[in-house]
Amino acid sequence: MTEFSIASFNVKNLIGPDQEYYRFQQYTPEEYAWKVDWLAEQIQTMDADVIGFQEIFEESALRDVIREADAEGIAGNAEHIPGRDKRYRRKAIFRKLAYGPYTDAALAVAPNVNDGRPGQRRPGVAILSRMGFVGAPEIIQDLSEPLDIDFCCMGDAGGGGSFQLTRLSRPILKVQVPVGNHVVTVFNCHLKSKLGEYVRPPGAALAPEVDLTQYDAVGRALGGLRAALRRMAEAWVLRRAIVAELEQGNPVIAMGDFNDGEHAVSSEIISGEHPFKNYAWMLRHGAQTPRDRYSDAENEQIREDIERVRLHSAEKQFVRKSARDMVYTSAFGGVFESIDQIYMSRHFIEGAKDSIGQMDYFSVLNDHLTDGSHAEAPYNKLASDHGQIIAHIRLKD
Known about the structure:
This protein is an alpha+beta fold and 397 residues long. Helices cover 28% and strands 27% of the residues.
């Protein structure tokens, strides 16, 4: 039996001191030290074997956090974990309390190709793995072929328009992690946020929609539309990569900051369709008569084809098993929701076809969250504005 844990952690703008990442935003050396210490404490509490990080501006800053977590964690072990001379050292409680350092862990970092000059920086993502990687990590951001989305015709009226995506707003990082007798494909993503995208006219200093003294409700709504289109297109790019792995029979875990809830269209694109209970009552795709419906055998085939490439929410599995009815990783404007997710293929669902194990527990660290409506609050700047989520998984021998 092999047990491991996997976590997602949006660290909120991790960069070294005295560097302007967004306009007029930077950390003093004191603020940076405070932030590193806070992040290190969260990592110690998570103590996950695999961690997907979002909003990484600098690899060196992330390594500072990992070193700090290890230094504090190892010191804590020395203070609280009994040595080999104690006959009670094998008690299970000490295995739970002990921190596992990342001394020999592998770290893959995916910088953002959209990263710019000071004040216009763009963050990337990273994955830390105590179990290392198999092969080289893969970064998905610049698309080798543009994604052209044709909205098709509208009756006899002709074309319905199109949308093209050539680059993701932030990279998707893909790694292969050896776990026990298996190799798990892990994706870490940070999809486009809901913040509007506004077009700056040629020669203008700013897009007109950002001037709130000349509030343009329709223009700002169009900015939200652009952001939503980009987020859903990025979700499809991730979905395509996920299905390619599942078609090869590989167990898959996809995690990160989806910037949308579980039931949003973008999240459902990533997870895949939910099959109907019975397709035998439905008209066939090319029905010639009212009685031309799918057969029972076709129903089984359709359901299997959908289930085989579907992902399942770790949070939803946890809620089904527990007495809790609410998990949240984000608080903004009085709305508490989960926009950080861990999705897993049916390989990790107990009793499912192709199952290699199951998730035993799911935890979230969100006690630090305050309503993010007040982004200027000092604590909001130095801590993360996201909760951290951890899935605890047990594999069969």
